[in-house]
Write a structure and sequence with these properties.
Length: about 270
Amino acid sequence: MTTHFTDKVAVVTGAGSGIGRALSVELARRGAKLAICDVDMHGLAETEALVRGIGGDAKADHLDVSQRELVLAYADDVAAHFGKVNMVFNNAGIAFTGNVEEMSFKDIDRVMDVDFWGVVSGTKAFLPHLVASGDGHIVNISSVFGLFAVPTQSAYNAAKFAVRGFTEALRQEMVNNKRPVKVTCVHPGGIKTNIARNGEQVEGRDHDKLASSFDKMARTSPEKAAQVILKGVEKNKARVLIGGDAWVLDKFVRVSGPGYQRIIAAFSRRNGL
């Protein structure tokens, strides 16, 4: 069956688990050729096996998206390997928990380097190839935390708000400059991934408690998230919200304005987050 993705070359960062893995498998199922990458080579190998298990074509590489020169070289390598690049899913991300007073500059830099600059580097590196394809699409993964802020997540909030602003501006530029590249920003709510369990936190915070709290709020499967994202890509949506919680929180922030901060702060305080 021919789909919107048949024979398209799609790049997925952070493909070793979670949404990245689910996207890779679903794209392969729909006929795309894949360039998948991650710093977790064990997880990446599992994703590659899943893709090949359903007859998919995958090029798997180790890549740390915080290393700009490596990302630039990777983009050229993927384009040379496949002869074109049609889609890029800038998905790789990490989490860190701690108050601003507790965090070091290094803690904040690490989150920004992966979650924001990784997206910028992936976008800039692949954009010439996407333009050259004549049929490009950039999909940048922000978060519901790119729509509203919460205590202890300032670094993550900063990165995801930045991804949102960067991506929305880019979409407008592509339209104004008549480039053949579509742009979508994705805001997942609670997705059942290991981002919280793999995340770090300042000294003194209970990692297991933080991960458990996240698990209770994560209601959407990565597979469902991938399906929603690809539906948004097919429809060329500017913004894709994933999960009922993302829709509710988006409307809540729109209605309450800055007043949401007082409510979220109280909720966080009561729940010891």
